[in-house]
Amino acid sequence: MIRAGIVGAAGYTGGELLRLLIHHPQVDVSFAHSRSQVGLPIHNVHTDLLGDSELNFTDQIHFDIDLLFLCMGHGASSEFMKENQVPGTVKIIDLSHDFRMSNEAVYGLPELNRDEIKNARFLANPGCFATAIQLALLPLAYNGMLREVHLSGMTGSTGAGVQPSASTHFSWRDSNVSAYKVFTHQHMEETGKSLQQLQPWFDKPINFVPYRGNFTRGIFVTAYQHCEWPLEEAIQVYKEYYEDHPFTWVSDVAIDVKQVVNTNKCVLHLEKHGSYLVIHSAIDNLLKGASGQAVQNMNLMFGFPEKLGLNLKPSAF
């Protein structure tokens, strides 16, 4: 049994972590930190946890633990690490973007860095769009077949965090779709670094157009590029790359977001149109794109079965 603490436990990713860790057979949650909800039961914020835990939010942090999750806003994790001397005996999983491009932390995409994750002390959890995109492209890079790629992707409103803004509140987002950060999304930097890890000479643009969707959770990405493989060969290459990875699956039929919401899965579907290979990728942004992947990484870091505590089922409707 390991002891875990969560800093920033009142947000969406913190809530997902609490749901997973409370029911994980090898984890005891030592504290759930939140400056805004101090003293309140965690089920006051994460109301579905009523009856599952008597834990209260606290503004106190201690390091009598084995693992620390950082679920704060971007920029806050690096400040936390500057202000706190975390003992070397405590492992860290950071869910912000602060250390994804840093040599200080292992980049925590299991389908790319599983062996390094097993030996990591400090881990940077990938971004949600970055996860969906990389899983769509890694087999191409692994085989030296990645070319200039074009992508579009749509994400649910939870991807923007718990604090509402002009482009996330219900009245604006409902029955609406909009593009944002065209070709400039922050997750492209970590995506490019990972792809070059497998195909070092890759220097072509990753042309990404992200969209805000009018739903709460999930990501759907479509990527396409020129590819010489026949469709059957491409499908076989993808299935072989992911055959030892328990959460990424190649579907022979068209996919949709409902297949993955409330799971730690990524599902992929390939098509061929003329000389273009088209890859569709779907994940839950809060699970495989954040907290579920963090627990998957935790399992690897502590030698637990990779799927432990993550046998989650999607809703059929």
UniProtKB/TrEMBL annotation:
Keyword Nucleus in record: no
Name of the protein this chain belongs to: N-acetyl-gamma-glutamyl-phosphate reductase
Transmembrane stretches, start-end: none
Enzyme Commission designation: 1.2.1.38
Subcellular location: Cytoplasm
Keyword Oxidoreductase found: yes
Active-site residues (renumbered): 128
UniProt source species: Roseivirga echinicomitans
The protein's role, per its UniProt record: Catalyzes the NADPH-dependent reduction of N-acetyl-5-glutamyl phosphate to yield N-acetyl-L-glutamate 5-semialdehyde.
Annotated Gene Ontology cellular component terms: cytoplasm
Pfam family, one: Semialdhyde_dhC_1
GO molecular function, one term: N-acetyl-gamma-glutamyl-phosphate reductase activity
Annotated metabolic or biological route of this protein: Amino-acid biosynthesis; L-arginine biosynthesis; N(2)-acetyl-L-ornithine from L-glutamate: step 3/4
Entry's family note: Belongs to the NAGSA dehydrogenase family. Type 1 subfamily.
Known catalytic reactions: N-acetyl-L-glutamate 5-semialdehyde + phosphate + NADP(+) = N-acetyl-L-glutamyl 5-phosphate + NADPH + H(+)
Gene: argC
Listed InterPro entries: AGPR (IPR050085), AGPR_AS (IPR023013), AGPR_dimerisation_dom (IPR058924), AGPR_type-1 (IPR000706), NAD(P)-bd_dom_sf (IPR036291), Semialdehyde_DH_NAD-bd (IPR000534)
Source taxonomy: Bacteria, Pseudomonadati, Bacteroidota, Cytophagia, Cytophagales
